[in-house]
Design goal:
lipopolysaccharide transport protein A fold, eleven-stranded antiparallel beta sheet, about 150 residues
Amino acid sequence: MKYFIFFLMATLLSASEVQVTAEKFMANEAKGISTFIGKVHVIKQGDDLKADEVVITFDKNKKPILYTATGHASVKMTIKNKKYFASGDILIYDPNLMRYTIKKNAFLQELNTDKKVYGNEIRVDQVMGKYEVDGKKNEPVKFIFKVEDKKK
């Protein structure tokens, strides 16, 4: 029998709410780690993260300091008022810096313009409104965008 766990927590400094749903939940208070497994869905500060597993690391004040998502990891996020979708094998989020790191099969798409970028690793800084993409040793970064032809 699958268990459905609904877990609400509030971050202390930003006073924002984080909502996590999953099929299974485990906590290790000594290490400050909470693990969510199975159809994990995290909603926080306007971002919508999904994965097979999410590990949340907390500081001594029980404030989330790192989210690590694996297995079909994806997120819908906002960068400077623009909507984006990102996915990869590993997705790491640092809430203090508001930075995502997407690793292995990394993909980022600006939803309004349909700009797409692919690489081995993508780093997204939501505060600065920028992202950086690294390719693999033998595979370059790929960037796809649409250009409208001017009619004469």
